[in-house]
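Dear Dr. H.,

I hope your travels went smoothly. While you were away I took the liberty of generating a structure for the chain from your last submission, since the lab meeting agenda had it listed for discussion. I wanted you to have the full record in hand beforehand rather than looking at slides cold. The sequence, exactly as received, is reproduced here:
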Amino acid sequence: MRSVKRACKQFSITYFLNLIVSCVKRGTKQEFPLLNRNYFKILNIKTFMKKIILSAVAIFGMVAANNVNAQHFSEAKIGIKGGVNVANITNAQEQLDDKKALTTFNAGVVAVLPLSQTFEIRTGLDLQSKGLRSKESGGIARYNPMYLELPVNLAFQLPINERVKAYVGAGPYAAVGLLGKYQTANTSYDAKNIKWGNDVPGNSGDPKGEGYMKRFDAGANIIAGLDFGKVGLHAQYGLGLANTVPSNSSYFGENKKFQHRVLGVSGIFYF
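The corresponding predicted structure, in token form, is as follows:
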């Protein structure tokens, strides 16, 4: 029995390490100054979804291997968080030149669910402000959508002492667009509301679908942080995998893709 548990644990740890490494190996150069212009990119969403399913299997194996019980769940905690995002968007280069990162914010609630003395699930609901800015001949264009995001991250705990704990992890997220603003030369750089939809209406009157975005986003997070009892410091890199440009929009050229990239740092207060 112990050998079976050991095998499950080894499979789970190895799988998640390989998942993170595969994301890094598929990196491609994009414009993101704070990451030395390197983006992590997974090209095949079907492959990603297969990995999510395997992740669920790995989590189940990890739970079984570590005998998750009521004692661990009794140590669950919730909190609130807030911080700064540095956001950008990939594959918009045909229409938006000289892309720059956009400084935004994040805020939300956090739930930490221990699975064992080694592993935990870190989830919650976040308000994530994303987007980019771009230099145009007449000024600065901006896209700044706001999403309600549900992350589900599996984290590996690294105790430093009795009061301080570090963690690293990864997992998927799903998000829905709530609101947002954009401004371009066509709007005389006045901010207008982002319009949500899978398709651009034929009578929209907007140049080639300018200002339209799909409402739903999904992707993966890589996280790390420190817990100091009642407070914590959290960092994450959000790798958007969904194309958020409507299917019939021509505003962003032939390679019409908006895939979010967000580097965020947050402070956490636990209740």
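Two observations you may find useful: The CA atoms of residues 7 and 65 lie 8 Å apart. The mean pLDDT is 75.

With kind regards,
E. W.
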